[in-house]
Write a structure and sequence with these properties.
- There is one protein chain.
- By secondary structure, the protein is mainly α.
- It has five helices and no strands.
- The protein has one domain: Homeodomain-like (Arc Repressor Mutant, subunit A, Orthogonal Bundle).
- The radius of gyration is 15 Å and the shape is elongated.
Length: 78
Amino acid sequence: MTANISTRECSRCFQRCIKLSPMNYLNEHRIRMAAQMLLQTNKSIMTISECCGFSSSSYFGKIFQDYMGCTPKNYRKK
């Protein structure tokens, strides 16, 4: 069943309520999951990036650094 609204309107409603775009919300959730895995497991950074839904480890590294202020490797070392 559909809500009879456009994809764009749905995105605007989401952003109005959550204060983040759907993509930013998803990335933030994925980064939180990755940060937890970095601290609690010995899985490789590549494996963690895949487990958290990132299609490439280089994109994961860039997004992780944008959100956390350091690379996944440095985050794990801290």
